[in-house]
Write a structure and sequence with these properties.
With 122 residues, this protein is an alpha+beta fold. It has one domain: HIT-like (HIT family, subunit A, 2-Layer Sandwich), CATH 3.30.428. It has three helices and five strands, in the order αβββαββα. The structure holds guanosine-5'-monophosphate and zinc ion.
C-alpha cells in the first residue's frame, strides 16, 4: 500500500474533515459503530501502529494531543480510543487510524456490541 492507492491518503487530500491541524485530520466513519464515531489519521502514511517508530517523537505526541482536541471539539467528556493493528485485530484500512467513539453510553463493552444493545433498547 502506497500513499497513491491508499483510501485514507485520498480522504486526507480531498475528503471533508471535522478538524485538521498540524498534519492530522479527523473525519466521520462511513459506518459508525457508536453515536459518535470519528477516525483520526496522520497525513503521513504508515500502514499500521506497528510502525509508529517511524514518527518523530514530537509528531507521535502531537497525534495523541490531536485526538484529545478532536474529542473536546466534539464536546465529548468520556470516550473510547481504539486502534486496530493487523487483519485479525480487525484492521481493514492499512493507513494508521484511531477510532474515537463516544456519545451515548458505551457501557464498558466493545463498541459494536454496545451499539447493537443500544439499538435493541430503542
Ligand atoms: P479498521 O477496520 O481498519 O480499524 O477501520 C476502518 C474504518 O474505516 C471502518 O470503521 C470503516 O467503516 C471506515 N471506512 C471504510 N471506508 C471508508 C470511507 O470510504 N470513508 C470513511 N469515512 N470511512 C471509511
Ligand atoms: Zn495512506
Amino acid at each position: 500500500m502506497t500513499p497513491n492507492d491508499c483510501l485514507f491518503c485520498e480522504l486526507v487530500r480531498s475528503g471533508s474533515h471535522i478538524l485538521r491541524a498540524d498534519g492530522f485530520a479527523a473525519f466521520e466513519d462511513i459506518n459508525p459503530k457508536a453515536e459518535v464515531h470519528v477516525l483520526i489519521v496522520p497525513e503521513r502514511h504508515i500502514d499500521t501502529f506497528r510502525q509508529i517508530g517511524e514518527f518523530p517523537p514530537e509528531e507521535a505526541l502531537r497525534m495523541l494531543e490531536f485526538i484529545v482536541e478532536t474529542a473536546r471539539f466534539l464536546g465529548l467528556e468520556d470516550y473510547r480510543v481504539l486502534c486496530t493493528v493487523g487483519p485479525s485485530a480487525g484492521q481493514t484500512v492499512f493507513h494508521l487510524h484511531w477510532h474515537l467513539l463516544g456519545g451515548r453510553d458505551l457501557g464498558g463493552r466493545l463498541p459494536a456490541l454496545a451499539l447493537a444493545e443500544a439499538e435493541r433498547e430503542d
